[in-house]
Amino acid sequence: MIGGNQFFLQDEGARIILDFGIPFKIRENYFEEFLKPRTSAGLEDYLKTGLIPPIEGIYRNDLLQIHQIIRGGGLPLHQQPAYDLLLLSHAHVDHGGYIPLLDPRITVACSQMTGTILKVMSIVGQAGLEKDYLEFRVRSEEGKMSKNKAEKRIERSFHLYDKENPFFREGKVLAHPVDHSIPGAAAYIIRTSKGLVVYTGDFRVHGIRKEDTFNFISLVEKLRLSGEKVLALLIEGTTLQREDVSGHYSEDDVKTSLYALMKSHHSGLIIVDFGPRNVERLVLTIEAAQSAGRKVLLRLPDAYLLREINLIDPAIPGPSHPEVDILLERRSTEPKKWEREIITEYKNKLITPFELRKNPDQYVVLFSFFDINEVIDFNLNQGVYIYSSSEAYTEEQKFDIKRLRNWLKLFNFEFIGDPENKTHNLPLHVTGHAYPDTIREVVERIKPEILIPIHTETPEKFIDIAPFAKVLLPVLGETLYLSPRA
Ligand SMILES: [Zn+2]
Ligand SMILES: [Zn+2]
């Protein structure tokens, strides 16, 4: 299964959770846009459909109470949570989306950057599917998060670490940054009584932060060569199912393609579409646009995200970048507090659809399919839409592409990178996950005794990749023993 990582590690007294994400594959078996888990039923819909495991001592007692009423029993309430630490690898919802269901006393450890992205997601309301549960509020100065609802306020304990301070649990856990399609991603090295347990999270080596991943591999290899036992490696294998990822393009190649397309389309508006919070792609698009003599127009949520991220990592440009302006879209409600902040702070950079239509050939607009009807307000009759996102996998996504095609026809826009109608060979998207030969290199250099494939549809492929290791294929809900039971 790809995503929905939820792992529970037990060693003597230590009990650690590795990620607690939304398993989309299971979710789409039962739910869709208009059929969601009922928030009034607490945990019940999630437990019944197997979206979360029936483990004692990890969930919020208030949600467990509802569960007990509905079942007339079930999971008991607890005084103290059975786990006290959750290592969150990054801010994608397939890794952290169900954290709000957990007992808030379980400390969530994540990078400062991940904490910032979670905060922005909650404030701008892009938290994802279980939005009602995802209304986090970070009060980073205290390292605490809370769920801000009038009737109950849940304070969640967070440990936000930075580069200077990656160790915790008396040095037994080390967080290490890795390259992925969202900033702030980390892998973890956990020192157990039987050896090191290494958790990769999601990673790759073809983005801007590839050195982070290489340093992580070198570190584990060095530990092994200095005599430490690498007991187990939990490693993602997202790309192993697809043989066609052998193109081995990098984010830099995508930037080159974007630049070439922007350069060759000098009249009309250009819209670029990529996944939410893919900050690296966003920055590369700004650079490509700058070289092609266009400014990038950000939507308010992206401007807010960039502003917050820039405060944590000044190397990532904020909305004050000279080649960035902000699109002020039509709205029917009063701006929220965070929107007012952006509107006031960057008042000299605001562009309305009316202003945009005067000189559309000077701009690149960052939109996704869900923003497409905003194009109506631009009142244009030509332009280019560059799809720089992953292929459509689910039926729903395929339908969205069909709808997108209809919209673009309506606007007389050229659709470049239509996933079902490739008209050229320029790489317009690369995956956030390591290519197969990188996975092979990681496995060979880390050389674990036990390998546990995760985040993959083809776990059995690791048997060939790691002939020297014992490959344990995880089964949902079952315990894997990393050492003989005492
Ligand atoms: Zn993932
Ligand atoms: Zn991810």
TrEMBL record:
The keyword 4Fe-4S does not apply. Residues 3-248 form the Metallo-beta-lactamase domain. InterPro entries: Metallo-B-lactamas, RibonucZ/Hydroxyglut_hydro, RNase_J_2. Transmembrane segments: none annotated. Keywords: Exonuclease, Hydrolase, Nuclease, RNA-binding. GO terms for molecular function: exonuclease activity; RNA binding. The keyword Repressor does not apply. It is an enzyme of class 3 (hydrolase). Its EC number is 3.1.-.-. Signal peptide: none annotated. It comes from the Bacteria. This is Ribonuclease J 2. It comes from Psychracetigena formicireducens. The lineage of its organism: Bacteria, Bacillati, Candidatus Lithacetigenota, Candidatus Psychracetigena.
